[in-house]
Amino acid sequence: MRQQLAIQAARIMTEEGVSDFHAAKRKAAERLGVTNDRHMPKNAEIELALQEYQAIFRQDQQPVYLKRLRETALEMMRLLKAFSPRLVGPVLRGTADRHSVIYIHLFSDCAEELGWSLMEHHIPFNTGERQYRFGTESDIRTQPLYSMLFHETEIEITIFPENGIRHSPKSPLDGKPIQRASIADVEKLLEQN
């Protein structure tokens, strides 16, 4: 049952554009009639099922979408290079697809500077907040968030303090520090493909 839920959640994420693991699990459980939480797969299991699903059913399209998303991310990162941008999430891990959001971490002690920079580039944006877990279960911090459409692609940028570049929050995927990629790292990923 756990494996079936992971497969169904992966399909929901790919076909319906659900980016949140928890929401995808809940939808999968509802569709399969599962009411017991003990059958729920871990996020890492869903990520693995997602990779397998894409390799089987989207082997032609997914790499094209991924490349386009990485190129768009790189363009945005270059625009905002003064903030030491780092790409995170599915676009970095390689599981992004046509509905995926580009997630970028920036570093500044003045979050408003990002807004000014986006206005200089004539990029409309919305603001909000996002919570991240750091060291312990109770170490949850709220960070400023800017969201926008850039080349018809949704981008979410979270701002961390300048010294936050050395302290990555925990990944919802496996609880380890979130993997981050610099401009040079993203350029290498694009060269490899």
Task: Please provide a written account of the structure.
The chain has 193 residues and is α+β, with helices and mostly antiparallel strands. Helix content is 43%, strand content 19%. The protein has 2 domains: 2-57, no CATH class; 62-192, Beta Polymerase, domain 2 (2-Layer Sandwich), CATH 3.30.460.10. The protein contains 7 helices and 5 strands. α1 packs across α2 (21-32) and α1 packs across α3 (43-57). It starts with a helix and ends with a helix.
Low-confidence stretches: none
What is the correct CATH architecture of the largest domain? 2-Layer Sandwich
Radius of gyration: 17 Å
Determine the oligomeric state from the structure.
single chain
Largest sheet: 5 strands, mixed
Beta-strand percentage range: 15-25%
The dominant shape is globular
Count of helical regions:
7
DSSP strand tally? 5
Order of H and E elements: HHHHEHEHEEEH
Distance between the termini: 36 Å
CATH homology-level superfamily of the largest domain: Beta Polymerase, domain 2
Helix content: 40-55%
- The secondary-structure class comes to alpha+beta
Mean pLDDT level: 93
Tell me the name of the CATH class of the largest domain: Alpha Beta
Strand order of the largest sheet: 1-2-5-4-3
